[in-house]
Amino acid sequence: MIDALNMIKAVIAVSGIAAFFAYIINRLVVIISGDGAVKLLVPMVEEGLKTGFALGFAVPVLIVHMGFGIYEAIYDILANPGVSRGRRWLAALLAFSGHSIFGWLTCFFLDLGIMSIVVIVLVGTVHGCWNIVALAK
User: Fold this and answer.
1) d(Cα 121, Cα 4) in Å, to the nearest integer?
2) C-alpha span between 88 and 93 (Å, rounded)
3) Among candidates 103, 110, 108, which has minimal Cα distance to 127?
4) Per-residue model confidence as pLDDT tens for the chain (137 residues)
5) 37 contact partners, CB below 8 Å, separation of at least 6
6) If 119 and its partner were Cys, which of 8, 19, 22, 109 is the partner (CB 3.0–4.6 Å)?
7) Torsion of CA 110, 115, 117, 120, to 10 degrees
8) Which of 71, 70, 73, 67 has its CA nearest to residue 88?
């Protein structure tokens, strides 16, 4: 059995790997499909990576989703220097909150016995709706 410290390290690593791959894949998806990809394709990629890596590495799904949200929050704060500080921090808060909610929802559906691929599509759709609302001007 893995001890608590090693589990924390594993979750940080798995969340980071998912965030790293999401960064690369999302950029490619947007280059190929355009900015509209952020509304559905990007959420599907992210949900697949977070849940897939969590299940594959046998670490807690919810914590991986939350860790991913922390990585995305840090990115939102650091990567947009032209955006006001308040808006960057709001984006960071929404990133962490959103990914935490998606993680909870994923666990809820998995606990119901729904197949993981179906859960990824369901939560990816919710994530897509979240993005549509969050990005509305």
Assistant:
1) 31
2) 9
3) 103
4) 569 899 999 999 999 999 999 999 999 999 999 999 999 999 999 999 999 999 999 999 999 999 999 999 999 999 988 999 999 999 999 999 999 999 999 999 999 999 999 999 999 999 999 999 988 86
5) 26, 29, 30
6) 109
7) -20
8) 73
